[in-house]
Design brief:
With 374 residues, the chain is α/β, with parallel strands linked by helices. 41% of the residues lie in helices and 19% in strands. It has two domains: 3-118 and 360-368, 2-Layer Sandwich (Enolase-like, domain 1), CATH 3.30.390.10; 124-349, Enolase-like C-terminal domain (TIM Barrel), CATH 3.20.20. The strands form four sheets. Strands 7-8-9-10-11-12-13 form a seven-stranded parallel β-sheet. It has a three-stranded antiparallel β-sheet with strand order 1-4-5, with helices on both faces. The chain is globular. The model has no long low-confidence stretch (mean pLDDT 97). The structure holds magnesium ion (MG).
Length: 374
């Protein structure tokens, strides 16, 4: 089997009106992503999703499409698509960084490999260690009335863990988390995510004031680049610290662990440049007794499926203790799949079809594609 072409399709999918997000990075109202199809001479087509966000990795739909057309496709056309490790080497040699673009291609190669073998991707990864992946919902850095009503809505749905966005302004951040705790009651798990928004000094004060609210994890309280500051915060706060924006690569992971900067590392295929890279990071973390957690960049259906296969197959991605962010489809008006993934209250169920186990809905794709707007 050989790769014959890589097709890129830019899409713009709005978030549901009551599910827009607001974080220290800004507002998220539409998802401008790229769906890719890797074509082969066998007729099998692999699906990928580049969940690009300029504020995350510097990638845009335009940069992704150009990089695939001009740099990656010329290296990969003619290659056996099941030679995923070879494709990873070729992509890394040809193009620095650009993890979400490379992840889209890599997940499509896993999809092809699974379809060719007639097995789900999780089987190729060594098989499942869990059938269901616990998840949480996220509340943006909104005003207190909206925060309270969202909390009540999620608790009524049966959600067991809620992530609250912080990192905007100290007093408002503390008030927001307090409002969630009051509305949720004592039994709901609460994590906070500051998305790099606090200075180390503000983070120290904030975590001290939030500690009595029983916080499961403080995610990326400060900006990447100063692991020593993260380590001091970890020592002082008594709240487990999770790295997200600090942990894109295997080298990032090594540095965070060596510097004693983290208790948990957030991983997912897009940010890490593919499923195989996420597994390498999870294994490096495991060697140091550090757990992993599935994070998110608000994926549509294909990207979410890749996360689920990863989360299902790696034991040290401890979604039972740290529920995952496998939630993108809940937030969008469409997931671009013919049959939606099963993302119920108990968690995400693992698709059982060959490859990623999802089918692109061409009708939705036509509705949301935005040709020529890069
Ligand atoms: Mg995060």
């Amino acid at each position: 089997m050989k790769i014959t072409a890589i097709e890129t399709i830019q899409v713009r999918v709005p978030l549901k009106p009551n599910r827009n997000t607001l974080t220290a990075h800004g507002v998220h109202i539409t998802s401008d992503y790229v769906i890719i199809k890797v074509h082969t001479d066998s007729g099998i087509i692999g699906l990928g999703e580049a969940t690009v966000a300029p504020r995350w990795s510097g990638e845009t739909p335009g940069s992704c499409i150009w990089a695939i057309r001009e740099i990656l496709a010329p290296k990969l056309v003619g290659l056996d698509p099941t030679c995923i490790n070879q494709a990873r080497l070729l992509m890394d040699r040809a193009l620095k960084l650009n993890p979400f673009t490379k992840a889209a291609v890599e997940m499509a190669l896993w999809d092809i490999s699974g379809k060719a073998a007639g097995v789900p991707v999780y089987v190729l990864l060594g098989g499942k260690v869990r059938n269901i992946i616990p998840t949480k919902m996220v509340i943006g850095a909104f005003g207190l009335d909206q925060v309270k009503s969202l909390t009540e809505e999620f608790v009524a749905m049966g959600i067991k863990t809620i992530k609250v966005k912080t990192g905007i302004e100290l007093e408002a951040d503390v008030a927001r988390v307090k409002a969630v705790r009051e509305a949720a009651g004592p039994d709901i798990g609460i994590t906070i995510d500051s998305n790099c928004g606090w200075s180390p000094a503000t983070a120290r004060v904030a975590l001290k004031r939030l500690k009595p609210l029983n916080i499961l994890i403080a995610e990326q309280p400060i900006a990447p680049g100063d692991n020593a500051a993260m380590a001091r915060l970890r020592q002082a706060s008594g709240i487990p610290i999770m790295a997200d924006e600090s942990a894109f690569t295997l080298a990032d992971t090594w540095n965070l662990i060596r510097d004693g900067a983290v208790d948990v590392i957030s991983i997912y295929p897009g940010k890490n440049g593919g499923i195989a890279n996420s597994i390498e990071i999870a294994n490096a973390a495991r060697s140091a007794g550090v757990s992993c957690h599935i994070g998110s960049n608000l994926e549509l259906g294909i990207g979410t499926a890749a996360m689920i296969h990863l989360a299902a197959s790696v034991a040290s991605i401890d979604s039972e203790k740290y529920p995952s962010d496998i939630l993108g489809p809940h937030y969008h008006v469409a997931d671009l799949l013919k049959t939606p993934l099963s993302l119920g209250i108990e968690g995400a169920l693992v698709p059982t079809g060959p490859g990623l186990g999802v089918e692109l809905d061409e009708v939705q794709l036509q509705e949301f594609r935005v040709d020529g707007r890069i």
